[in-house]
């Protein structure tokens, strides 16, 4: 059954903002693409200002001049790495 439409009385407003969960894509021979609702922080926990972006590429080749973000350097250095999806084994028990 469909939900009834919201009622907006005089001076009343309502908004629902739906966010897309983060999705991470390992691009063949390229970057790690991150899409959706995410935050990227440095080693001290300080977040990078992403300027409202909802998708970014992270460097995987190690040659970007804008680390941790991809600047396309993987194409210049002919970076080669294909990572097909697979299941990981269960984590080892902690002692």
Helix-strand pattern: EEEH
Portion in beta strands: 5-15%
Indicate the percent of residues in helices: under 10%
Largest sheet: 3 strands, antiparallel
CATH superfamily of the domain at 19-83: CDGSH iron-sulfur domain, mitoNEET-type
Strand segment count: 3
Q: Which CATH class of the domain at 19-83?
A: Alpha Beta
Structural class given helices, strands, pairing?
mainly beta
CATH architectural type of the domain at 19-83? 3-Layer(aba) Sandwich
CATH topology of the domain at 19-83: Ribosomal Protein L9, domain 1
In the sheet with the most strands, the strands line up as 1-2-3
- What is the terminal-to-terminal distance? 51 Å
Coarse morphology? globular
Estimated radius of gyration: 20 Å
Question: Would you identify the regions where 5 or more consecutive residues have pLDDT less than 50?
Answer: none
- Count of DSSP-assigned helices: 1
Average pLDDT reading? 88
What does it look like?
This protein is mainly β and 95 residues long. The chain is built from 1 helix and 3 strands; from the N terminus they run E-E-E-H. It starts with 22 loop residues before the first strand and ends in a 19-residue tail after the last helix. It has a domain at 19-83: Ribosomal Protein L9, domain 1 (3-Layer(aba) Sandwich), CATH 3.40.5.90.
């Amino acid at each position: 059954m469909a939900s009834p439409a919201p009622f907006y009385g005089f001076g009343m407003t309502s908004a629902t903002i739906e966010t897309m969960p983060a999705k991470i894509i390992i691009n063949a021979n390229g970057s790690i693409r991150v899409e959706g609702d995410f935050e990227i922080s440095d080693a001290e926990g300080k977040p990078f200002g992403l300027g409202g972006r909802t998708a970014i590429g992270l460097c995987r080749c190690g040659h970007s001049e804008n680390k941790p973000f991809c600047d396309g350097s993987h194409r210049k250095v002919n970076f080669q790495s294909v990572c097909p999806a697979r299941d990981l084994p269960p984590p080892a028990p902690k002692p």
